[in-house]
Specification:
alpha/beta; Rossmann fold; 6-stranded parallel β-sheet; binds adenosine-5'-diphosphate; binds alpha-D-glucopyranose
């Protein structure tokens, strides 16, 4: 098939979280399966130097945005057979220190930046000479593309069949902007209503995609069910219920070329499910790197996370207050809300021999934390898919997760299947519930033979992309049904 992906983040070019990982890996997996794939994404700061072989696409062009004509410059790159990157090159919008905002706030012109991005993507979808058959857009940053294409289809006399698919990676980020920004799209006002882009008087980019895409997916089967309920629906549950027939949940895969425990440039010591001994050495190296007392016998818990309410960081802080008395160690790499950053720094100051905190974004350290930790904490309030628990499984860090979204779909608790258990699950959103799960982890740690079995089960679990690619191909061809809606 011929597929055009559109995303505000694509690893290895840009990433603030799992969205970048997922789109980068999906693109490579589709290309490796023999499909023709294009990816439209912004040319962010630093990429011109990092990716020197960029080639400008075609002659100069413009898009009309509101009352302005804005130059449309696109740089291309073919990193591997079957895959072409289309970088939207507008230094004024995209060459900034961050992707979406700084100092805990969004850039004030995000509407303009991503309406422009969507206008360019919609033009490419129609004009690229290889004629994509499916346009697969990701999250709010590309949410306007299906509506722009629908408008062209209906009103510009353009008849080619082009299927649009929208993937929701996180319903909590909707791209909400003042209603007057809708004028930037140059769409007729009849799209700005209850059934279209409008949401309580504002422009809602994600809602536009959900309302107008031919098919909708999200990144785990359980989250697909959850988002149709008021509890998880972030105000869009009624629309999602109305579109339930077009909604499918497909669990993300892992790029095991990137997330591997042998031959990984970030790790001091190689290991595997068959030869697990090296994991212990990575633990000692991690304790040393983070200035914690080095001890093979001290249970080590880790997290790598955006520091936002979604990730249950309040539970982590509450449960650790209670559990640090047992002598366990905890390491955290994260960045996000200044309040949470300071709370974790404070915990590290109070427990310098047990808690190490690094605030920032550091891919190398994220691999070393997964490899060095005995247990991985992910007590999310909600989790569309979650990738870190999948990485933890492969790295032998037993995940402790709240049973929600993709966490519930990917981790096996002993209560569900004693023989195939890979992690520890809890349900209540409360610090005591996480503390209880940590107590279970400590009991597991005291039984090395059982711990070994958990690790082995996790390391051998297969979340490779083949299964997910098959799911997306069914959606691309219109063959996928809605997920079952039993609770
Ligand atoms: P989300 O996308 O909601 O943040 P995921 O678990 O799907 O959660 O993906 C998070 C991705 O971002 C993982 O690849 C994780 O390693 C990475 N990540 C998050 N925070 C950091 C950080 N501070 N440094 C390095 N990588 C990080
Ligand atoms: C979002 C979600 C996360 C998911 C990722 C990739 O960032 O929060 O759960 O794994 O997207 O799909």
């Amino acid at each position: 098939m011929k597929i055009l992906l559109v995303s505000g983040e694509v690893h290895p070019y840009s990433k603030t979280g799992g969205l970048g990982d997922m789109v980068g890996a999906l693109a490579r997996a589709l290309a490796a399966a023999g499909h023709q794939v294009g990816v439209v994404t912004p040319l962010y700061a630093g990429l011109r130097a990092k990716v020197p072989d960029l080639q400008p696409l075609g002659p100069a062009a413009e898009v009309v945005m509101g009352w302005r004509r804005v130059p449309m410059v696109v740089q291309t790159l073919s990193p591997e057979p079957g895959l072409t990157m289309y970088f939207v090159d507008h230094p004024g919008y995209f060459e900034r220190p961050a992707l979406y905002g700084e100092h805990g706030g969004d850039y004030p012109d995000n509407a303009e930046r991503f309406v422009f991005f969507s206008l360019v993507a919609a033009r490419l979808a129609v004009e690229l000479p290889w004629r994509p058959e499916v346009v697969h857009v990701h999250d709010w940053q590309a949410g306007l593309v299906p509506i722009l294409l629908q408008h062209q289809r209906l009103h510009a006399g353009w008849r080619r069949s082009l299927r649009t698919v929208m993937t929701i990676h996180n319903l909590a980020y909707q791209g909400l902007f003042p209603g007057w920004d809708f004028a930037l799209t140059n769409l007729p006002a009849d799209y700005f209503n209850l059934h279209g882009v409008e949401f309580y008087g504002q422009m809602n980019c994600l809602k536009a995609g959900i309302a107008f895409a031919d098919a909708i997916t999200t990144v785990s089967p359980r989250y697909a069910r959850e988002i149709t309920t008021p509890e998880y629906g972030c105000g869009l549950d009624a629309l999602l219920r109305a579109r339930a027939g077009a909604l499918t949940g497909i669990l993300n895969g892992v790029d095991y070329e990137e997330w591997k425990t042998s031959g990984n440039r970030y790790l001091p010591c190689a290991y595997s499910a068959r030869q697990p001994a090296g994991k212990g050495k990575n633990k000692l190296a991690l304790q040393q790197e983070l200035d914690l007392p080095v001890g093979a016998d001290t249970p080590l818990f880790g997290s790598v996370t955006r520091l936002t309410d979604q990730k249950g960081v309040d539970l982590t802080l509450g449960a650790l207050e209670e559990m640090l008395g047992t002598g366990l160690q905890y390491v955290l790499l994260g960045s996000g809300s200044p309040v949470w950053e300071e709370a974790f720094r404070d915990l590290a100051r109070r427990f310098p021999r047990q808690v190490a905190v690094r605030i920032g974004f550091d891919p190398g350290l994220s691999h070393r934390i997964e490899a060095g930790s005995d247990f991985y904490l992910m007590p999310s309030k909600f989790e569309p898919c979650g990738l870190n628990q999948l990485y933890s499984l492969r790295y032998g860090a037993v995940p402790i997760v709240r049973a929600t979204g993709g966490l519930d779909d990917s981790v096996v608790d002993i209560a569900a299947d004693a023989e195939h258990a890979t992690g520890i699950k809890f349900t209540e959103y409360a610090p005591w519930a996480l503390a209880k799960a940590i107590r279970k982890a400590l009991a597991l740690y005291a039984e090395p033979a059982l711990l070994k079995e958990y690790r082995r089960n996790g390391m051998l679990a297969d979340f490779s992309w083949d299964r997910a690619v098959a799911g997306y191909l069914r959606v691309y061809t219109g063959a996928a049904g809605a997920p079952s809606f039993h609770p």
